[in-house]
Structures are given as structure tokens and as C-alpha cells.
Amino acid sequence: MESKAHHHSGAAARSAAAEEAPAPRVLIVTAVAAEREAVLRGLAGSRRFDVIAAGAGTAAAAAGTAAALAAGSYGCVVSAGIGGGFPGRAPVGSLVVASEMRDAALGAETPEGFRSAAELGFGSVSVPAPGGTVQALAAALAAAGLTVSMGPVLTVSTATGTAGTAATLAARHPEAAAEAMEGHGVAVAAQALGIAALELRAISNPVGPRDRAAWKINEALDALAAAAAILREVL
User: Which of 3, 30, 42, 127 is at a distance of 20 to 30 A from 154, taking alpha carbons?
Assistant: First the structure.
């Protein structure tokens, strides 16, 4: 009896310790204030998440992420915001969970065409997202009735604005689901510190000819807020 009591008390202590252990904090990095506000709306005051607007572009994203990570303790970093979806892969109003964050612009022009920095031997241009978390997040978003796809999200310095550029990108990255301007920078900063990185995009426009009047920014921000609510459950 004494042995059983000791066993039960030990199990209870371990259970209590597990309950007391705080869940890892999550840093969410957006580019602009409107994206940050949408994410905060979805998080509904959860204190496990810190959300920053680091600025547009990969350099600002990387610098802002690195500074925030240096000042805090986080188990995961998420690049979140709106972006362009590749037609046939990610329709306007849907969500994309990145399988990897890929810099589509880092490289060189050659007589044979564009060559990525990786092809030139200058290191990787892609950071993979943790597959299990990607699958779990996509499944949770779908279960909530949200339209979601998975695939590489391209990080570009110049947003695509012509059919020609869109076709070139699609041919070079046929599996890509979306493009944005910050994901790879966020992921590189996280990777340097051994922290997992994700990218979540709400699609406001198709990748292709620039038609600002047709963009569905408010709808995309609403989708981003809905997705942030699901982040609370998955991460």
C-alpha cells in the first residue's frame, strides 16, 4: 500500500508540474500596423503571444525579428500578414501555411538566366517550416471552415506586377503557393537562434498584373484575424 501511495503521489507531483510549466511564448512578426491589429484581434488578449510590426521587406523583418528574439524568450516565431496567391494554388480570401520560406530574389543573372544563391554556392535560400506544425495548423484552419493551402511562400523584394513576371516565378517555383516580402527574413533570424519559424499568409490579391483597386485587403485582414484565433489553439 505504501508503495502504491508513493507511486500515486509521484505521479500527481509530475502532473502538477506539467500543468504549472508555462507553454512556450510565441513571437508573431507582421510588416505593418494593419496586419498587427488583425492578428491581435484574433488572439483576443492571449498573453502567450507578442506581436510586432517590424516593417516591410526582408531586411526590416530580419532585423526586427532578431531584436525581439534577443530581448525575450520564445519557442516559435511566425511571419504573418497578407500576400499574393498564385492562381490555381491560393485564391483571394484564402490562407496559406508555408511549407518553407524561400527567397526568390537572392541570386544573379547569367547568360543562361537567373541562378539562385544556392545554385551559385552562396548558401541556402530556403528555411523549412516544421512539417508537423504546418500540417496541424492547416488541418485546424480547415476544420474551422477556412480555405487553406500549403506550399512554399516566396519572399520577394519587388512585388510581382506583370503577367510576365508571374509566369517566370511560377515556372521557376511551380509548387509555390504565395508571395510576400518578409517570410525568409523572419525565418533566417529565427534559424540563427535555433528557433522554429512558420509563415502564415492571407491572400489579398492574385500574383500577376497589379490592379490595386481589385485587391481584397479588408477581407484578407479578416481572414488573418480568423487564422490568428486558430494559432492560439495550435501553438
Answer: 42
Q: pLDDT tens, 138-196?
A: 999 999 999 999 999 999 999 999 999 999 999 999 999 999 999 999 999 999 999 99
Q: How far is CA 223 from CA 18, 86, 181, in A?
A: 34, 17, 19
User: What does residue 141 show for φ and ψ, rounded to 5 degrees?
Assistant: -65, -45
β-strands 26-30, 49-53 pairing? parallel
The model carries a pTM of 0.89
CA dihedral 108, 183, 25, 147 (to 10 degrees): -150
Give me the helices (H) in the chain, please.
2-20, 33-43, 58-71, 131-143, 163-172, 183-192, 217-234
Measure the CA dihedral 55/57/63/67, to 10°.
40
